[in-house]
């Protein structure tokens, strides 16, 4: 058997497709027939130094994949499957794995490290494998460097997989001691030192207690800083990565080290190799992130009870930090603007400068202006580009007061550079900078507008001309136009863009038709800008937008006619369809929002719907999502008349609701069901059996992404509100689901903010469902059908009130439900509400809320309750 | 470690437009869901949509150049389709701008709840009614939306346009709510102190209050205006002031307070609102106006020049068949024009005509007012008013000249409360 496995594993990596396929099937069969034997033979293969390295590596990889998966539900299955295995088998596998750490073959050791960490991630929370850390630490004292290296690597993976809560502080101390010792300059082996430094990166999350102790923190920091001076590049890089991680995890503990860290990073940025220098810049970007967050959260008002004070590290470092960053801007690469993935010193430095500007605001301006003035007219393109990039980087953060005067002077220069500069990089950055000017300094909230009727025409002329430039420049010009239009979004009918609307739209359409529009995402940018121009159009320009409808429809039609495409062409075609559907969605939403334009637009409804149905015939998730969104908007605009499309559309609606894999499509479709309910009202009734069946299936599925579940509950409410007492037959299915979800969500001890946010979304969905159902039955003779559920609803509200962790949205919906209950159940609700533990307090609290939406709901609930109790 | 994922897009758009489309769609759906819940709660049965921007009042002919008002009134019955009768509905937007302006004004005028004149004292005045002093001034709608506030007179023409602290009443980023977060207040503009006295609230932040009882509307009005600070002193950008009026239960104390209490404005009679009545557009007997010489300088109707004419005057509408009717629904016929006179005088159906009533030519018969002889005075400029007099007004004015309903009569009708615990009668409530 063992010999056979080796061959199968090698065959599974064969270049010959049929051999490979056969081997893969054998492996699958083996796994299905006898999982314990399968896993055992894989671990034995991995541990066996006699075997070829390729079969060992694959054995380890399959083992790892048998323990973990990306999808949460699959992952849970695998965890349960492992836990259910025979203890003896598991012990044997673990023994093989630990044994592998001593193997002379690096790949085998490394693979085993990862598998060990995966098993630890499963077993330690179950209080199993308690001896693991002890046996790993005993390896550290071995003399052979390769065992030490493998063990430290394992500890690193271990810290990545296992949550700090399940490891005792005593063991944490031992792990950290081993790791930090391994990093020490006295460690002779480079491999060991590198493994230890990388392990520390993951172990930092375990070091909370140690970082609170001055002595231990000093020691760790000293070792990390020393490692940044190692002669080995990889160690220096790993050490800076540790500093970056420390800057975000232990920001408040850094004050006494900042001077040293500044010196280390400055030296690295100026002298070290790029990967190291990039991490050194990243340290400062990360400090900016922290300070921006802190300042955002407290708005500059610090009190004794602020969690984390702002130390203003950036402000203090500013006079030295800014010149260092400005130097990096001159280290551009040729062609970096054509390369989507480019990331180099100049880009990292500019990004950091942008963050610095957001952190300190006005103070950055005088430090950057001399650099700009000195370089912006230099003959070397690098200097002109760096100056422009510096300018663009500091436009967000400083106050408009500080920037407006400068921008007014710079604007003309930028416009002329965009036309005349001979260098593409300079033009690219110039167009981007113009976009940043429009994004941050133009709009109805600005006291002194930088764009006037006078210079508007000039700006447009330049941007439209620039849209004919090479793709990367044209794409930035589109971006600038996007923000130019956005800034006029709420000026009303007198938009200075109105006279040029036709011209702008023509120019954007021309860009979408360029041969090279596929490069630098130019076509996408052109459509996005077109969308923004449509969103910001006014009554005055509505006729021009109306003319766009048949144009976009024709384009979509053409993509659907194209035949016999290669797979590459098909992909491009799908992308284009997505963009066109997106554009139609924006147009529908815009024209459908005003009564005047809606009726004129609806003449196209039949044809548009026809096109959308044909789009659904193509298999591409993005396109479906876009078409679905557009249909939601169309249903809203069409109202009850949408019923004539339902027969044709319904199959795709159901398909969307069944799309577990592409959960975004499913989520959007659920939203569209809501649109349909509001548009069709009781005319949606014939389709409700199918829709409800599908929604209930979705809720019961553990494959569906959890984010879709709250909107499904809300959708129950939409349906109930639309069909009223006809919801009766769904009550026996929907109500138990709502009840059990309510129980789960009421007590969900939210481990973190993300979980709490999700819990609140779920609560809101459940409450919206209750609200819709209660209001749907209002004035119906069948109201009494809801009576049995009322105590549970009230109990849910009580629990929510007592848990004290609901957000404002939930609070508003919850108090509304209390009102709905009283409103619909009338006098029956009175005694129930009187008996409920906290309704009264809840109502009082909402009545005195500062949030006007909560207060309004509460005022209404109060009225409804008083009527219920009186009547 | 790979370059920071968040850093890469610095020179790229921060957010993809697709994500933006998705978010905007979700936002729209959430808003509409909330609207439909509110509609179900009868908080927002409004189908109102306001024009994006009104002409500034500086326009030379503001009345004729008004923007079309695409507003469909909330109807008390659940009615998803806007009523076909909405006058602006089928008009071509491009043509007939004058007609549209007039139609729009007429429409606006129909949106106000118009109190009938009190010709006898309603029963249970103390239990079912509120009373407050009516400020002297122009009745108007104040609409805040899209960052501006516009007031419109009863005839629909724009009175002022100004920024206010009402929701959506000024361009202020920090207060910006959803674009449709408009408000409609029923006000009286009191010239001497440049103040809008808010007498009723029709819409608040997009919530329609049409189908709410006066009890609720007044409660809402007082609490919401206080919250927003809209009644604060006018800033440099906030030219006109808003103020609320003390509203009293119409018991003896309340009636005295409203009648004789000191208020910062000139009084023009008393207004009585039935507590249970919804905001009903047009003439309604559930809101009443009453005046005497003490409480109003307009006790007796004045003519176009502001003088009290020797004879009572009435404004009536000329119908197709020559009949002269009041603005009531159904209209009350007070007389008829003979065809020959009509042809000579160039009058058309729909015209509003002013008549004088001789002292001896009107009489009360079985509690109804009958007019025996109408003397034609003049055609009324359609821009100065949109409607004929109501029957109750003609009656009240007649009574005022002959046997007025006095404050003593009102007070006498209110019995001191002797522990009458009989159940209140709800009016127009769907309970």
UniProtKB/TrEMBL annotation, chain A:
Belongs to the importin beta family. Importin beta-1 subfamily. Gene3D superfamilies: Leucine-rich Repeat Variant (1.25.10.10). SUPFAM superfamilies: ARM repeat. The keyword Ion transport does not apply. GO terms for cellular component: cytoplasm. PROSITE patterns: IMPORTIN_B_NT. InterPro entries: ARM-like (IPR011989), ARM-type_fold (IPR016024), IMB1_TNPO1-like_TPR (IPR058584), Importin-beta_N (IPR001494), Importin_beta (IPR040122). This is Importin subunit beta-1. The gene is LOC105047601. The keyword Protein transport applies.
UniProtKB/TrEMBL annotation, chain B:
Pfam families: SPN1_m3Gcap_bd. Keywords: Cytoplasm, Nucleus, RNA-binding, Transport. InterPro entries: Snurportin-1, Snurportin1_C. One of its GO terms (molecular function) is RNA binding. One of its GO terms (biological process) is snRNA import into nucleus. One of its GO terms (cellular component) is nucleus. Residues 1-92 are annotated as: Disordered. It is found in: Cytoplasm; Nucleus. Transmembrane segments: none annotated. Residues 41-56 have a biased composition (Low complexity). The keyword Cytoplasm applies. Residues 111-287 form the Snurportin-1 m3G cap-binding domain. Belongs to the snurportin family. Functions as an U snRNP-specific nuclear import adapter. Involved in the trimethylguanosine (m3G)-cap-dependent nuclear import of U snRNPs. Binds specifically to the terminal m3G-cap U snRNAs. This is Snurportin-1. It comes from Elaeis guineensis var. tenera.
